[in-house]
Amino acid sequence: MNHSAQVVLITDADTPVGRAMIRRFSAGGAHLVLNSASGGAEAAADIAAARAAGSNVIVASLDLSVGANANQLVETAERELGGLDVLVHNNDLLAPASVETCSEALFQEVMHANAKSAFLCAQASGKAMASRQSGCIVFVSSIHAEKPTGSSFVYSASKGAVKMLAKEAALELGRHGIRVNTIEAGPVEGDDERFHSRLTTLYHSYETKVPSGQLGSAEDIAHAAGFLASAEARYLNGADLRLDGGFLLHYMDHKMKRPKGGDSP
């Protein structure tokens, strides 16, 4: 898909998904504004490749749960690259937390990182995009906006907040030609450890609970974001794209697709 001359803001660019976004959008010809906790160090190879391919890349390292910082990042895109076309909000802080024992400080940390920053980035981006009556906002969220993790209730709560934020923003910003959608990402490699739980077996043998028996990847998420930001998705607004390979449809372990040589289903 062609993203030539689009200006794309990607948050949390150091993560595997963030780096895949850099590769995906720069391959389509986009110019990039990246928020990176490492100042670009952890995504250095992908940033260098994007620049070599002709993309202008601006790197910042800001706390986007502060409104002035979110405004500053958008203003940088407007001033230096000619106007923001796409916001990809990719913040995904996860910390073990139970309803019984979670501290107020940890609750606020996760909610600020994932949900408050989503609101502030959408607000700042929406104001800039509204002046041109066009734009696209993609929230990279999680299936745990709907399904409890059993390991971090505050992560699920933050993603649920983003889900409804996207709906409200789609209704309001859609009147200014701005589309707002979410990607509810499912399991990728390593999520069995990331969402390790004593309460649920959801991630036990999780790769076999995907009907195809194949996990998704950061690239799959980036490709979905590329589609949502493209002209081909012009009529998608307020949608949740569940990108989990059918993982949440699983309901009987004895019907799982086993690796070759394993037990027959």
Can you put this structure into words, describing what you see?
InterPro entries: NAD(P)-bd_dom_sf, Sc_DH/Rdtase_CS, SDR_fam. This is Short-chain dehydrogenase. The chain is α/β, with parallel strands linked by helices and about 260 residues long. The protein has a single domain, classed as 3-Layer(aba) Sandwich (Rossmann fold), CATH 3.40.50.720. It is built from seven helices and seven strands. Strands 3-2-1-4-5-6-7 form a seven-stranded parallel beta sheet, with helices on both faces. Helix 1 runs parallel beside helix 2 and helix 3 runs parallel beside helix 4. The longest helix has 27 residues. The termini are far apart. About 45% of the residues are buried.
Derived structural class: alpha/beta
Tally of strands: 7
Question: How much helicity do the residues have?
Answer: 25-40%
Taking pLDDT < 50 over at least 5 consecutive residues as the criterion, the unreliable ranges are none
According to CATH, the fold-level topology is: Rossmann fold
Strands side by side in the biggest sheet: 3-2-1-4-5-6-7
Question: N- to C-terminal separation?
Answer: 39 Å
Query: What's the CATH architecture name?
Result: 3-Layer(aba) Sandwich
How many structurally independent domains? 1
- Specify the CATH class: Alpha Beta
Report on the biggest sheet.
7 strands, parallel
Q: Roughly how many Å is the radius of gyration?
A: 19 Å
Q: Specify the CATH homologous superfamily.
A: NAD(P)-binding Rossmann-like Domain
Keywords: Oxidoreductase
Protein name: Short-chain dehydrogenase
Pfam families: adh_short_C2
GO molecular function: oxidoreductase activity
